[in-house]
Amino acid sequence: KKKSQAIDRGLEEDSKKLRRECKILLLGSGESGKSTIVKQMKIIHQNGYSVDELRLYRHTIYKNVIDCAKALIGAMQQFDISPENPENIQHCEFIMQFTVDPDPNAHLDARCATAITAIWKDPCIPRVLDHSSEFYMMDSASYFFDEVHRITQDDYCPTEADVLRARTKTTGIYETRFQMGQLSIHMFDVGGQRSERKKWIHCFENVTSIIFCVALSEYDQVLLEASDQNRMMESLVLFDSVVNSRWFMRTSIILFLNKVDLFRQKLGKSPLSNYFPDYSG
User: Fold this and answer.
1) Which GO terms describe its cellular component (predicted)?
2) Which of 115, 156, 213, 246 gives 91 a disulfide partner, CB atoms 3.0 to 4.6 angstroms apart?
């Protein structure tokens, strides 16, 4: 009888533990803001980033800065828009030929800051940005361009604000664990690009909730993987497949609409009805 009671107690403890465990799966297309949620949870619930952890993002941020600058210059060439300041022709050539040193201890060349700042201030840039829905550039580009002089300093250590805006492609599955009151939260971040989606299946068992992320600002943008396809349409197709999946019949699904500030900024210049003709609001 004692043995039976011990087994019952063990089962009850396991049951209580399971009730206190919450498994959350983050889904959404590439760049919908899934990894940013994980970073924010770390800042809020895990005492943020140590100095060493912040430094690990330095190379990623250097690469983001240069990739954004190259995307901008590439768009200038694509739409046949030349810099109005003749000096910026050389600055553009310098950036297009520049590669970030793979050494994690290397600094970003200060000449990059001079070149990027000058290009970003060129009077031709508003005309380039009129075409922003026709080429790919990170949402954080303007932030990094404005901060580039600080980022190229020799003693640069990324801030949490820099890390939140840094972009690395999520490949595979990342698990973050943290406590929220009595609850033990297990959050799974999975790659959003098309090539990553087949890996999601491994996360599906016993998931309590799904947070499905959609960047509202992507309504006029094209996919990184397929420049002829609208990103919002891709998100809608993916959301449909998740909601109607047999794996998620008993799972609560939370739709998280992200990047509302960018969405508001865009609407005046890029009407929603241009991309979704059924919309009449």
Assistant:
1) cytoplasm; heterotrimeric G-protein complex
2) 115
**Strand ranges for 153-273 from DSSP E:** 173-180, 183-190, 209-215, 252-258
148 is known to lie in a ligand binding site: no
Is 139 assigned to a binding site? yes
Residue positions annotated with a catalytic role: 31, 36, 167, 189, 193
Antiparallel, parallel or unpaired: β 209-215 and 21-28: parallel
- For residue 148, give both structure tokens: 């580039």
pTM: 0.82
Report the run of H or E that residue 23 belongs to, with start and end: strand 21-28
Residues of the chain with pLDDT under 50: none
CB 24 within 8 A of CB 187: yes
Q: Quick check: helix, strand or coil at residue 150?
A: helix
* Tens of pLDDT, residues 187-211: 888 765 555 555 566 556 678 889 9
